[in-house]
Amino acid sequence: MAAAAEGWRTETELFPAGPWTVERPVARIVFSRLPAPSIDPLFAEVLRRRTVKGRFEPRPLEAAHKSTLLAGVGLDGLRLSIVDEPARVERLRAIAIAGSELEMNTPRTHKESIDVLRIGSAEIAAHRDGISIKGPMIWMLRQLGAMTQDKAMTPGTMAWNSGRDYVLAGYASAPAFGWLTSKGNDGVDQIAAGRAWVRLQLAASALGVSLQPHSQTLQEYPEMDALRVAMRKETDVAGDETLQMFFRLGYAADPGPSPRRAIDSFLKS
Description:
The protein is of the alpha+beta class. The chain is 39% helix and 17% strand.
């Protein structure tokens, strides 16, 4: 989108040296000039796109918004489903909540999140990635030693309990859930799923609809096996399909932009 808006055509070859390894490139992109810039209608939403991690407003998903999203936003052969029927939403919510609690109660998986927990403005500014929490109360709790990575790893502490309550309150407020399904699951399928997700979130942003992805019950470690099977069953994912993305959607106030690293910190030219 950005290249086209600057007047460049891009031709992308995925995995030009074969299936991905750390020694092989993910893609080769060739740029050539377009006769004129080409602006994708969704490009205007790039700087407005947000992920809402807190509560959604207590109102249902509008039927017009649901149908617009389901109409397709360049899904590259993936299947998009959105459900807002109360009984089914409740079943999906229960599975998502159970998956979130299981991840938090499994130390090695919970640690993956805590390792990138940035507490307070100084840590956020130093890293500009991960999970950011800040504000006067967070600062005070950090000074008192009540809000630290170690405390957030320890069930029963205020830091651990507040993290759990925050996550679960978000799911409890969700008026609808959706998911993306692919036929295969090789590198090309996974990149297609990522592209589809970004376009879906941009389209949702244009409608004023908020999204938050849920990854816990899609993950493949032994403790999650039963919940992953339950999620596949509840989302009607066939045996040969892959559930690529699961998410909640609804309406919420703009939480503001997340911290971002400077582009020259990870891009060579």
